[in-house]
Design goal:
The complex is a heterodimer.
Chain A (H helix, E strand, L loop, with lengths): L4 H16 L5 H19 L4 H25 L2 H7 L2 H5 L6 H33 L7 H26 L4 H16 L1 H10 L3 H13 L4 H11 L18 H28 L4
Chain B lengths: L3 E13 L6 E13 L3 E5 L6 H9 L6 E6 L2 E2 L3 H4 L2 E4 L11 H11 L4 H14 L15 H12 L6 E5 L7 H16 L3 E5 L3 H7 L2 E6 L2 E7 H7 L5 H26 L5
Parallel strand pairs in B: 3-8, 3-9, 6-7, 7-8
Antiparallel strand pairs in B: 1-2, 1-4, 4-5, 9-10
Helix pairs in contact in B: 3-4
The chains are: A mainly alpha, B alpha/beta.
Chain lengths: ~270, ~270
């Protein structure tokens, strides 16, 4: 039987550490940015204020969540190595994968809470700006897709923190996060080349990196109101069917599992001098 | 047959530098065994290989050659670690936790129930005289308090074997006495103790047997009582100095022989 007690212990400890580092205060920054944007945009974009607010809100959730995921995530394992608390952990009867998974889950829980707080605030603000209550399920799904993306960012940061310094991990994580959004462009760029080798190279890069463009596309669909008629709660996803949603979720979670497995392999082989 | 809880055979550890992969031998064929209930002191000058040996026993490092067995399992095996307690040198703890939370965390890693964790934490905090500081954040702890908390975390699972790395370093005389008394109490409870220390008076008082490492090799091994009763040495310090001096002389002679055998570069 898989022992999850140690995973939960590590996750709770990581969660405590992150929360006590006052990371949740980032919510206040979000609230200030969004309230200010709501006031300004309400006067500027006649008839489109809700849509603009949702756009800015989702972008801000993604950015603030991403910044926390990157800067906390890249320190997750490194700090334990640097402060040598890892000696205390790995001399207890736990497996290395339990440590990596626990670290990932602890930060994921923290990011979940902060994303939920920011998403809730965004919903309240859009409702106050006249958005129909029935559109909230779409907005909730859009916030969910942001969280899904953040899980991947946390996994990237956790993976890099098993072998690189925080600075290098930040650079690698941000680099791959951005590249993930440029996947389709890389593919198009490759197809424009006349060289077969270049085409193959771009195709390899495209398939090796997670394609996050689809998540952005999904969010766009979710917050774009139907051309006519009322919002339809539940059947929300434009041309995205439930199957596509499940596929996207599995796709992202697959990358998460892969990155955590690679991180475990690295930490398994590592010696603690 | 004596119940051996720690057995190492021909332990070799070679460290490699990061870029050029230059080898440096930290341990060169060290073998020893420790019986259940024995207090074993590992001594040696800085860089002799004491910490490397301890890390190999705990599975934090892997041996280049040789075998390490703890409680009948390979070092680092969770079945062995389940019965092991460890206090590292100059431990850094999670400063954002309180002492109670810290012990509770380690109790969870040993799969103790909530009730067991609470009971054990209270018991241990009392034992190390930190009952009043249980709710205090660790960042406000003094060096002595940290060391006592370190001992408490090492005992959370009521271990059979305790590894203590320089438990008295940086403590004032009162702190040293307190820690010494705690270790004495654990010894009386029948726990096997592996003590890594520079403080010879403490080792003399606490250990049944010692081993002196010098440049990764065993320079001497003796029962503490025998050193005292042999009449050859005034105390452990004199025995230690003599063993290290002999080992250094032997090493220098070997180096000279090796240099003479190597053709000179033109």
């Amino acid at each position: 039987m898989i022992d999850m007690n140690s995973v939960i212990a590590i996750a709770l400890n990581t969660f405590r550490e992150t929360v006590r580092d006052r990371v949740l205060y980032a919510f206040l920054i979000f609230a200030v940015i969004l309230t200010f944007a709501g006031i300004v945009l309400g006067t500027l974009s006649v008839g489109q204020s809700v849509r603009v607010l949702e756009d800015i809100g989702l972008f801000t959730i993604s950015t603030i969540g991403g910044v926390i995921a990157i800067f906390v995530g890249t320190n997750l394992v490194f700090k334990e190595l640097d402060k040598r608390t890892i000696y205390l952990i790995f001399t207890k009867p736990i497996r290395r994968w339990q440590f990596i998974l626990g670290k990932f889950l602890g930060l994921s829980l923290c990011i979940l809470i902060i994303t939920a707080l920011m998403g809730g605030f965004l919903m309240v603000l859009t409702l106050a700006n006249g958005a129909p209550a029935s559109s909230m399920s779409n907005l909730l799904a859009a916030v969910g897709s942001v969280y899904l993306e953040l899980l991947l960012v946390i996994a990237l940061a956790t993976f890099f923190s098993t072998f690189a310094t925080p600075l290098m991990s930040v650079i690698f994580t941000i680099g791959l996060w951005i590249c993930g959004h440029l996947g389709q462009s890389l593919m198009s760029l490759g197809s424009m080349s006349e060289s077969g080798a270049v085409k193959v190279l771009f195709a390899v890069i495209y398939y090796a990196l997670p394609d996050l463009g689809k998540l952005t596309e999904l969010r766009f669909e979710l917050i774009t109101p139907p051309a006519a008629g009322a919002w339809s709660p539940g059947a929300v996803v434009g041309h995205f069917g439930v199957e596509t949603l499940l596929l996207l979720t599995t796709y992202v979670l697959g990358y998460v599992v892969l990155l955590l497995s690679l991180g475990t392999l690295i930490i398994e082989r590592r010696e603690f001098n | 047959m004596t119940d051996q809880v720690i057995v190492t055979e021909n332990l070799v550890k070679i460290h490699y530098s990061h870029f050029l992969r230059r080898p440096s031998r930290a341990l060169q064929g060290v073998s020893f065994s420790i019986a259940r209930g024995e207090a074993f002191g590992l001594l040696g000058p800085n860089g002799a290989g004491k910490t490397t040996t301890q890390k190999l026993l705990l599975g934090l490092l892997k041996p280049t050659e040789g075998t390490v067995c703890v409680l009948g399992h390979p070092a680092g095996d969770p079945r062995a670690l389940d019965k092991v307690g460890f206090l590292p040198e100059n431990p850094y703890f999670y400063s954002y936790l309180t002492a109670h939370e810290f012990l509770d965390f380690f109790g969870r890693l040993f799969n103790l129930s909530a009730a067991q964790r609470k009971e054990r934490a209270n018991e241990l905090l009392k034992m190390v005289s930190l009952s009043d500081a249980g709710s205090k954040p660790i960042r406000k702890f003094s060096k002595g308090m940290l060391q006592r908390l370190g001992i408490a975390q090492a005992l959370m699972n009521d271990p059979d074997v305790l590894f203590l790395d320089e438990p008295n370093t940086g403590l004032d005389p009162i702190g040293r006495r307190d820690i010494r008394n705690i270790i004495k109490g654990l010894k009386q409870q029948g726990k096997t103790i592996f003590l890594n220390s520079h403080l010879l008076p403490d080792v003399n008082e606490l250990c049944d047997r010692i081993m002196i490492l010098h440049r990764g090799r065993c320079a001497a091994e003796a029962r503490v009582q025998d050193i005292a009763t042999s009449g050859n040495y005034r105390d452990l310090e004199e025995y230690f100095m003599d063993a290290v001096a002999r080992a250094e002389q032997e090493y220098n002679e070997q180096q000279a022989t090796a240099a003479a055998a190597t053709p000179a570069k033109v």
